[in-house]
Structures are given as structure tokens and as C-alpha cells.
From TrEMBL:
One of its GO terms (molecular function) is isomerase activity. Pfam families: GBBH-like_N. The keyword Nucleus does not apply. Gene3D superfamilies: 3.30.2020.30. Keywords: Iron, Isomerase, Metal-binding. This is 1-(5-phosphoribosyl)-5-((5-phosphoribosylamino)methylideneamino)imidazole-4-carboxamide isomerase. Residues 7-88 form the Gamma-butyrobetaine hydroxylase-like N-terminal domain.
Length: 123
């Protein structure tokens, strides 16, 4: 299980930087939020599509033992524990996972923008 050698929260750019040796990955708060390992997002075997999270930010990160991070988002979500293995998978498969997410949004007629989501619900 790869463990990051460095972890840095960049609040201004709303990203979490993970370093593994010489390799560095930058994960957006939106990406981390929509891929939360929590039951709220993952469902119980049936993932629940997250939308309208374009502007979400990470407020803080907290260690969870020696095996994970608890990420606390400004939309109140803080129930997912991101294990070292899960974070590594998110980092190394980011492009593929993001493309899949965007395709799911399009298929569902949803938007990353919370304002567009509200307008669509009102129509």
C-alpha cells in the first residue's frame, strides 16, 4: 500500500497535493468530493451520482490512524475515510475516473455547477 511521502492542502486552489517519492499529484476538492468513499456517495453497492460540486472546497484534513485521511469539505461532508490505497488509486487513475464521472453527469442531465442544477430542478 503506497503511503504519500508528503501531503499538502492548497486552500486557494482547492487542491490536495500528494507526493509519492518523486511523483506529485494534485487532486481537486471537487474530484475528491464526488469520489468520496463514504456510504452517502458509494451507497450500499450502488454509487449515488454527486453533482453541483464545482465550487466545493476542502476546509481541513485530519489523520485517521495510520491508514487514512478524513477530508472535511465546506458543504458539510466529512464522513468518508480516504485510505492510503484509495488515495493512491484516485491519484493514479484521475484522468480515467474524471472522464467516467463527466460521462455519468452528461447521461443523467446533471451539471457540475450548483446554480445550473438548481435551475434544472426548477424547470
Amino acid at each position: 500500500m503506497p503511503t504519500p511521502s508528503a501531503i499538502k492542502l492548497h486552500k486557494a486552489s482547492r487542491t490536495l497535493e500528494l507526493r509519492y517519492g518523486e511523483q506529485s499529484y494534485s487532486l481537486s476538492a471537487e474530484f475528491l468530493r464526488v469520489h468520496s468513499p463514504s456510504a452517502e456517495v458509494q451507497g450500499h453497492g450502488r454509487p449515488i451520482l454527486q453533482y453541483g460540486k464545482l465550487n466545493v472546497a476542502l476546509e481541513r484534513i485530519e489523520p485517521a490512524g495510520n491508514y487514512a485521511l478524513k477530508l472535511c469539505f465546506d458543504d458539510g461532508h466529512d464522513s468518508g475515510l480516504y485510505t492510503w490505497d484509495y488515495l493512491y488509486q484516485l491519484a493514479t487513475r484521475q484522468d480515467e475516473l474524471w472522464a467516467d464521472y463527466l460521462a455519468q453527469l452528461a447521461a443523467a442531465g446533471k451539471s457540475r455547477d450548483p446554480d445550473e442544477s438548481v435551475v434544472r430542478l426548477m424547470l
